[in-house]
Design brief:
Elements lengths: L1 H4 L9 H13 L9 E4 L3 E4 L5
Antiparallel strand pairs: 1-2
Length: 52
């Protein structure tokens, strides 16, 4: 977060999560069971190959 916004992450700053949710809503078939953008707890997000 520091590299993106120029400051450390505040405990209640969820702007990245909100943006990822919006991107998921646009590209995922099932937002509750994402296949393209996966959450890695404690790390962030990762793009995955599309799975059949």
């Amino acid at each position: 977060m520091e590299a993106v916004r120029g400051r450390e992450l505040d405990a209640f700053d969820r702007s990245i999560d909100v943006h990822m949710g919006r991107i998921r809503a646009a590209i995922e078939l099932d937002v509750k069971n994402p296949k393209r953008i996966l959450t890695v707890r404690g790390v962030g997000y990762v793009f995955a190959r599309q799975q059949d």
